[in-house]
Design goal:
A hairpin with a 7-residue loop joins strand 5 and strand 6. By secondary structure, this protein is mainly beta. It has 1 helix and 11 strands. Strands 2, 4, 5, 6, 9, 10 and 11 form a 7-stranded mixed sheet that branches. A 4-stranded antiparallel sheet has the order 1-3-8-7, with no helix packed on it.
């Protein structure tokens, strides 16, 4: 049984940082494309960052987070990370991690080609 469990969300002030983690069990991350999505209240879920399975330099970032967020994964611990810096109120949302064995970074982030989803973690940015 595959499980993705996010952690690291919380309430922060604008300009602060958070690091989200997603612990995966049931399959290895080594050959899976991974990604982070978010859904703000009243809006559709969007792909914000995805990382290719085989090439650490093949990534996708939504324009809204480019330069502030960094995706990474650690195969040894089977964990996906999202480092979020300079957080803004518009980053407030529920954040979901995801994995897929055949998706590209574009198909995952732009078309939500996802096999497995996490349950989500809340991030709130407010002064």
């Amino acid at each position: 049984q595959v499980q993705l469990v996010e952690s690291g969300g919380g309430l922060v002030q604008p300009g602060e940082s958070l690091r989200l983690s997603c612990r995966v069990s049931g399959h290895s991350l080594e050959y899976y494309t991974v990604g982070w999505f978010r859904q703000a209240a009243g809006k559709e879920r969007e792909g914000i960052s995805c990382l290719d399975s085989g090439h650490e330099d093949s990534t996708y970032y939504a324009d809204s987070v480019k330069g502030r967020f960094t995706i990474s994964k650690d195969v040894a611990s089977n964990t996906i990370f999202l480092q979020m810096n300079n957080l803004k109120p518009e980053d407030t949302a529920i954040y979901y991690c995801a994995t897929d064995g055949v998706a590209t970074v574009q198909s995952m982030c732009l078309f939500q080609t996802v096999r497995f989803w996490g349950q989500g973690t809340q991030v709130a940015v407010s002064s």
